[in-house]
Amino acid sequence: MFRYYVAENFNPTYARLENADRLSDFMAQRLFMLQNRLHLPLQMWADRSVLEFGPAAGENALVNALLGAYIYLVEPVEAFHEKIRDYFTTWGQDHRLKQLTASTFNEFQTDKRFTMVIAEGFVYTTGPAEQWTRRLASFCNEQGFILVSFPVISGFLIEMLQSRICRMAAERYNLDKFQAADLILGAKWQSIPHSRSFESWANDVLFHPFIRHESLNHPDDIIKLMYNAGLDLYASWPLLAKPYDVTWIRKTPSRENLCNDYAAAALALQPSLLLGQPVPVKSDITSTILPSLRDVLEKELRALDALNANDETTLEKVLDVHGRSCELLTNIVTGYNESPLAKMMHEVEMCLRHAKESPEKISSYFHPGQLLGDLWGSPNFYMVFHRAAPVKKSTLKS
Ligand SMILES: C[S@@+](CC[C@H](N)C(=O)[O-])C[C@H]1O[C@@H](n2cnc3c(N)ncnc32)[C@H](O)[C@@H]1O
User: Fold this and answer.
1) N or C end of the chain: smaller count of CB under 10 Å?
2) Within a 10 A sphere around the Cβ of 241, how many other Cβ atoms?
């Protein structure tokens, strides 16, 4: 994945923390995410060793340093290193930057183990999830945490649709890719606050060669793989804690039960991830229907991924499987036919049916005010795992 950033010569997440105002806005956003959404106490960073893979220019790493952590960075794009060093010097954190290595996630070697291991926004491109979950766990110490973010299949429908529609339009109408993207999605992009340029976003999201069906995961799989690697889910965004839980507080479920509960909650969240807003799920659904939705959404994403401007059958295939997704949702979502999700799925269908029209016409599906113009799905999951250290009897003194 990093070779793409070198070839296209861009930093996808560069936040230009050049003055105190920009840094303070960035920090406020990041701290809210860590503290309020992921429930990580900010004190936990103080004097801890944090290993971060793929920091790009290191904005998040700088925040960790300002919280008192010692920072170890592994970033394969050497062109980003200068900015990282610059940030740490400008903001008086040189003493906290312990290591900056030009290596990849799979090649990096160290004997040290860390309290926090971070891999945001790329690790899913480094190989099968069985492999990267195990490798992340291997860097984590006995009391360690892992913070990881990755795109999920059930939240990725709108993103994949936008990506493939823009690519098709560029090819069909012989347009520059940014021109096609701007014609179709320019107004939608302008309607949200952003800190990066349209081109940077388009390169990172719409035209990214790794935005492929094979790189996407199911959140329940990641929870189970981490469980196999000896780590339990500590926190996540979106939340996976059981709603309305009134269990006796001292009741201690097994690791396996907890893992299964979180995985089930992730499956029930699929309609909400699709829409990017809360969607109530019926209480009387069969135990197989949510796994069936998982399968059919995976097929839909695979078919969308393969959408080809010169092959009519690829479009028919997406429409066919999209119809099956809608049928399943009818049986899963409370009041589906009148719901925003049904409207969104209908707009997706209409957009696909008119996918061959000019970019100007297709853009009408993505104008702010249309559902597809206002919605982004919920493509990325953030998860924090921890190694639950057993209480050793020998350490307990009476
Ligand atoms: C989308 S950016 C995310 C930057 C930052 N982690 C964030 O979330 O804001 C992906 C970063 O991962 C790096 N990267 C890509 N492939 C990598 C790999 N195999 N090993 C380590 N880093 C990688 C890229 O160079 C880039 O800096």
Assistant:
1) C
2) 12
Whole-number pLDDT of residue 43: 96
On average, the pLDDT of the chain sits at: 94
Å from CA of 143 to ligand 1 middle = 25
| Residue 217, in any domain of the structure | no
Q: Is 15 in the same domain as 143?
A: yes
* 11 CA from centroid of ligand 1 (Å): 9
Cβ burial 97-135 (10 Å sphere, 16+ → b, else e): beebbeebbeebeeeeebbbbbbbbbbbbbeebeebbeb
- Domain range spanning residue 169? 154-194+276-378
Co-location of 108 and 165 in the same domain: no
What would the two tokens of residue 292 be? 């069936």
Encode pLDDT of 123-164 as tens digits.
999 999 999 999 999 999 998 999 999 999 999 999 999 999
User: DSSP state, 247?
Assistant: -
What atom in ligand 1 is closest to the CA of residue 57?
27
**Single pTM value for the model:** 0.94
Residue 387's φ and ψ, nearest 5 degrees, are -90, 110
**CA dihedral sign of residues 210, 216, 219, 225:** negative
Token pair listed for 189: 């992009």
Q: Considering only CA atoms, which residue is closest to atom 17 of ligand 1? A: 2
* Helix/strand/coil for 146: strand
